[in-house]
Amino acid sequence: MFKTPLDVSGIRDDFPILKRQVNGQDLVYLDNAATSQTPLPVIDAISDYYKHTNANIHRGVHALSQEATDQFEQARQKIQLHFNAAHAHEIILTSGTTHAINLVASGFTSLVEKGDELIVSALEHHANIVPWQMLCERTGAKLLVIPMTENGTLDMEAYKQLLSSRTKVVFVNHVSNALGIINPIESIISQAHAVGAAVLIDGAQATPHMVPDVQALDVEFYTTSAHKICGPTGIGMLYGKEEWLRKLPPYQGGGEMIDQVTFEKTTYADLPHKFEAGTPNIAGGVGFGAAIDYMQGIGFDAIAAHENDLLQHATEKLKHIEGLHIYGDVAHKVAVISFNIAGIHPYDIGTLLDKMGIAVRTGHHCCQPIMDYYQIPGTIRASFAFYNTHEEVERFVAGVEKAVDMLR
Ligand SMILES: *Cc1c(COP(=O)(O)O)cnc(C)c1O
Questions:
Q1: Contact 31 CB / ligand 1 (< 6 Å)
Q2: Ligand 1 midpoint to CA 60 (Å)
Q3: Pocket lining: 32 vs ligand 1, CB cutoff 6 Å
Q4: Domain ranges of the chain
Q5: Class of the CATH-defined domain 8-30+299-407
Q6: DSSP state at residue 96
C-alpha cells in the first residue's frame, strides 16, 4: 500500500484513462467534482463479477445466485463500516444521490402537512432542491432558504431565525459542489434537532475527500454517489437511521421489496429490501465496495493532504492572473476552485482549455441559485482528485493564461 506523501505516479498507473490524449495533448482531468475516474481494481471487480459470478440475487437456491448475493451484501457491509452506520440494513443501495434524495422526499409526503416548514440552503445542487419542491407541491408545506453570503458561506444567523417548531426537515450539502466550501453540518444538525426536525445531508461532494461518521454526526439521512469516489455510475447510497427508514413508506413497488403479495394486501420486506424494488445494480454495488477498499488503501488523510497542496498551489498561481475572481475563497474548503475572469465568458475559457487537453467544468454546476446570487451565467470550475499532480496544476494555470491572452 501507499505511504504518505502519496506515490502519485504509482497511483496514476491504476487509472488507464489518465494516460490518454485529448485533442492531441496529454489529458489533464480537472472535472472530478462531476465524476471521478475509475481505477483498475474497481474495473476488475466489475469485470470479474460478470465473468465469474453474474446471477440474480436474493432469489435462487443455486450457487451463483448465492455468491452474487454474498458479494452484493458484502459491499453493503463495507459501505456500512466505512461510514460507521450502526447496521448494514441502514444502508440502502440506490442509483445515486439523486435517487436517494427523491426516495426520502417522496416518503415525507405522509409525514408533513400544510403549514409545516422545510429548510434548504442556498448552496444546494438541484438534486437537493427539486424533490423537496415537489414535496411542497404535494403537501402544501413551505420551503424556506438559508441565505448565502458574499464569500460563499451560509448565513448561520439567518438559519437560527428560520428554525421553529414548524420545521420538519432540514437538507443541506456537506460540501458545495459549485464552490467546494465545507458547510458547518455539525451545527446545522444539532440546531435542527433542538426544534425536533430531521436532517438530510447530501454528501456527494464530501465523500471523495473525507470520511463522514454518520453516528457521530447523529444525522437522520446521508447520501452519496459511488461515481464521485472512484466507483461506477448508477450506484450510490442512502444511509438512514433505522427508526426513520421504518417511518418512511416504500418508494417503488415491485419484486425484492415484498414479503407477501396477494390481490387483497401486500406486506413489505424488511430493511433494506423494502427500498430496493426490482433487480438492483449488482455489479455496481460490487464496484462501489471495491472503490471504498481502494480509497481506504490510499488513506483519506494522505488524500486530503495532497489535495490541499494542489488547492493551495493552484489558488496561489491563479490569483496572479489579472481580473480573475475566485468564488468561495475561504479556508474551510475542498480542492475545488470556481472562478471567472472579468470580461470573458466562462464557456470560452472552457472551450480553449479543452483544445489544450484540459478538462474543466463551465456553467452553473446544477446550482443556478448560487449563480443568480452572484448574478453570473456560470463559472469555470477546476476540481482536483488525489491522482492529480503539481505538473497538471502548472499546465492548467498556463492554459488559463494562454486562453485569457487569446480572448483579450
Ligand atoms: C454530483 C452531486 C449530486 C448528484 O449526484 P448524482 O450522482 O448525479 O445523483 C448531488 N449533490 C451534489 C453535492 C453533487 O456533487
A1: no
A2: 34
A3: no
A4: 8-30+299-407, 43-296
A5: alpha beta
A6: S
How confident is the model over 305-333, as pLDDT tens digits?
Answer: 999 999 999 999 999 999 999 999 999 99
Q: Fold identical between 8-30+299-407 and 43-296?
A: no
Q: Which of 202, 207, 230, 333 to mutate to test the pocket of ligand 1 (most atoms within 8 A of CB)?
A: 202
End-to-end CA separation in angstroms for the chain: 47
Looking at residue 181, the DSSP 8-state letter turns out to be B
**How does DSSP classify residue 234?**
S
- Any idea which residue has 488513506 for its cell? 299
**Rounded to two decimals, what is the model's pTM?**
0.97
Cβ(102) to ligand 1 under 6 A?
Answer: no
Residues 4-46: tens digit of each pLDDT: 579 999 999 999 999 999 999 999 999 999 999 999 999 999 9
The sign of the CA dihedral 385, 386, 389, 390 is positive
d(CA 384, CA 153): 21
Q: Which of 154, 136, 137, 120 is nearest to 328 (CA)?
A: 154
Angle at 168 between CA 163 and CA 172, to 5 degrees: 70
- 173 Cβ below 6 A of ligand 1: yes
Amino acid (one-letter) located at 360: V
- Catalytic residue at 230? no
Q: How far is the CA of 215 from the centre of ligand 1 (A)?
A: 22
Contact 185, 175 (CB under 8 A): no
- Residue 45 is given by DSSP the state H
Q: Tell me, in angstroms, the distance from the centre of ligand 1 to residue 31's CA.
A: 13
The response to whether residue 311 sits with its C-beta less than 6 Å from ligand 1 reads no
All residues at 6 or more sequence positions from 271 whose CB lies less than 8 Å from its CB, including other chains = 89, 90, 92, 242, 245, 246
Query: How far, rounded to the nearest angstrom, does the alpha carbon of residue 270 sit from its chain's CA centroid?
Result: 27
List 136, 230, 366, 367, catalytic entry: 366
- The closest-lying atom of ligand 1 relative to the alpha carbon of residue 203 is 13
Q: Is there a cis peptide before residue 369, judged by omega within 30 degrees of 0?
A: no
Distance separating alpha carbons of residues 191 and 216, to the nearest angstrom = 15
Helix (H, G, I), strand (E, B) or coil at 64: helix
- Could you tell me the fold of the domain covering 43-296? Aspartate Aminotransferase; domain 2 (3.40.640)
